[in-house]
Structures are given as structure tokens and as C-alpha cells.
Amino acid sequence: MEEYDEDVPSSSDPSDSSDEFAGESEEEEEEENDDEERSAVKSPTSDEGRKSQNVDALLRGNLVVRRQSLLPRVLSVTDGAAVARKPFKPPFSNGYHDRNDQLVHRLWARKRFVPWGSSRPALVLITNCVNISSAAEKDVLEESVSLPAGIDPLVLWHPEESEEQADNLMPIVVDPLLVRFLRPHQREGVQFMFDCVSGLSSTVNISGCILADDMGLGKTLQSITLLYTLLHQGFDGKPMVKKAIIVTPTSLVSNWEAEIKKWVGERVQLVALCESTRDDVVFGIDSFTSPHSPLQVLIVSYETFRMHSSKFSHSGSCDLLICDEAHRLKNDQTLTNRALAALACKRRILLSGTPMQNDLEEFFAMVNFTNPGILGDATYFRRYYETPIICGREPTAAEEEKKLGAERSAELSSTVNQVILLM
């Protein structure tokens, strides 16, 4: 087997290689000297000079990173502590956007934190709205809405000419902003609720009602319409309601807030206590119950109200109470029912899709909550209504028992029909 020698190119002469390397090193030294001369011409303190030096060092591969502390420069701001404690405002002066509500809602009334270098926590108030300074933006909120053709105004009450001091009384008319969206059955519902809470329903002393429409018939819109009307109008021209509380299951708190803003926008000042800490809840309730607070509506869950019911014990804390999913009040012995019943507020509205139950005790609890004493106390109701009605429905009941049960049932229906609207 023959072996073939492979021709391998020989490397450069050692003398040539050393000369080449020496030449390259001399060129690098000359470039470095030129770079140093160019950098010496520029001011080392100027931004352009520092930038040029950094670029040159990066190209040469000898960039050295020096880290400096940021906090000393941040904390050296004049009046930094005072600035950190100022109320939070969105980063624009004029205007307001719905997305701000989500931020304010989660941060809510205040934020507790410990400033740098301090051992004590600081409380920073977070405003719930932005002052709109321009007259044009104010006109947007106060813009009047006219009714489309074919839709009649909804006049809830008009003073009679024969009434005394009729000149000082003002008609109560629902704002066209809401009337244009009301269906016929909803107009009837708003009128019914107004008659009950205003005491115009009948000769009986009635100040509350139960709206028992089926789901999807707009109980929320009817309630918002009545709420908005009473917050802005009254018999003497002054608002009939200054403070209103909406109590609802926890899952519906944010829904009520969204519905109110959907229909009336920023025309109502409200606070919704949802996903809040205990401190935020206490601060929100205190802000609402304050005599000089601009807040008009408080939306709160049943559990939150029960735990903080003592804060609503004084008169004037609530002029109108609306309870959604009111079947939760069918037992008058629960702590939630007792806490709400103790509220110093006569105008009470219950919203429920199924208030009519076979259990007369549960039915009595709900009716008695809206209008205490209209059916007597629990003992009287059980003896006068419940026992005869139940006995008259038994298969073995005598004719007299059936007749008495039918009479008491008709009498009960006649009374409760004044405070219950069922559609």
C-alpha cells in the first residue's frame, strides 16, 4: 500500500510574524493615544462627553460599570415628604374617565404605607373624583335631555289647586334622562314605589314597599329612577332624600355601582364598598355618614352592614333604604334582619323575585320589615291571620273554618296589596 505525502502550506516565517504583531500593537497604541486626545478635548462633566467616553470604552471592550444609589437622589426632592402624603389624583388636570373608578375603587379611601426613613405609617387620602374646572365639562353633566316624540312625561305628583300653600309646592317629575328608557310596566312600578315611600299610597300609614317583579323586568332601573328623583326633588322643592343606602349580596355590589353610573353617570355621588379592607370600610362609612359629606349613596353588602350597623344608629344617616335580593330578610330573627330593622329609616324598599311564599311567617317578616306594625305584631298575626288560614286549607276543615280562613285570607291580601307590586 503506497503512502502519499499531503502538501501542507507552511506557516509564515517567525521573523515576519513578530514584525506583523509588533506593527499591530503599535497601531493599537496610536489609536488609544488618539482616543485619549479626543476625549481630553471634550468636557468630562458634560453629558455628550460622558456618552462619547462610554461608546469608545464599549468599542474597546474595557467598559466599567459603576452603580450609584438612586434613593438619595429621589429623597433629596424638596418637600418630598409633603409631596408623598398629598391626595392621589389621576395624571391629568381636567376630565374624568371611567377607568379611574376601577383604580380608585381598589385603592379606595386611603393607602397605608411607611415612608422611607420613617418609623410611623402615613395615611394618604385617595380622592374619588376629579374637580372639573371648565364650564364646558360642567355643562355636559347638567345637559338637559328632551323626550322623544310619543313618550309622555312621568309626573309622580302634582299639587292640587285646593291644597293649602299650593304656591310653595312643586310637582315631582321624573327626569327625561331616565323616562325615555322606561317601559309601561316600569313607569307603573316607579309610581307605585313613590306613592308608598312618600306616604301617598292610602290612608294607612305606609312608608315602604316590596317590588316583586320577575327577573329581567328591570327592578334595578326602576329603583335607580326613584332614587335619582328623590335625591333631586321633593314636595317643597328640596330633595326628599339626602342619604340612601343600597344593601345587596356581595357579588352584586359592583353591579349596582356600574348600573347607577350607566344610567345617571356622575350626577350621583356614591361609594361602593367592595373588595375593601376593614380600615377602608370604616373610612368609607364614616365619610358617608359625615354630616357635611357630598356622598349621597352607599352600596354595601349585607354582611358588611351587619358588622358595622352601629355606625348608622344616629338619625339622618339614611333617608332611603333599598334591599336587593330581599328574600334574605324572610327570617326576622337573624342578625342581619335585626340590624337593618334597627336602622332609623322609614322609607324602605325590598326587591325580590319571589316574595310570595307558602310560609306565612316568612311573608310576615318581609311585610313587617317594610312597614312595621301594618299586620300587627308576630303574635297577633299568627292568631288572627295564620292560624285561621292554615286551618281553613286542611282537607278535614269544617265549613265554618273554611269560610273564616277565606275571609282572613282576603283581608290579608287586601292589606298587603297596598305595599306589594307583583308583575
Automatic annotation (TrEMBL):
Gene3D superfamilies: Tandem AAA-ATPase domain
Molecular-function annotations in GO: ATP binding
Pfam families assigned to the protein according to its UniProt record, in alphabetical order: SNF2-rel_dom
Residue ranges occupied by any Helicase ATP-binding domain in the UniProt entry: 200-373
InterPro entries: Helicase_ATP-bd, P-loop_NTPase, SNF2-like_sf, SNF2_N, SNF2_RAD54_helicase_repair
UniProt biased composition (Acidic residues): 16-37
Region (Disordered): 1-54
SUPFAM superfamilies documented for this protein: P-loop containing nucleoside triphosphate hydrolases
Name listed for the protein in its UniProt record: Protein chromatin remodeling 25
Native source species: Vitis vinifera (Grape)
Organism phylogeny: Eukaryota, Viridiplantae, Streptophyta, Embryophyta, Tracheophyta
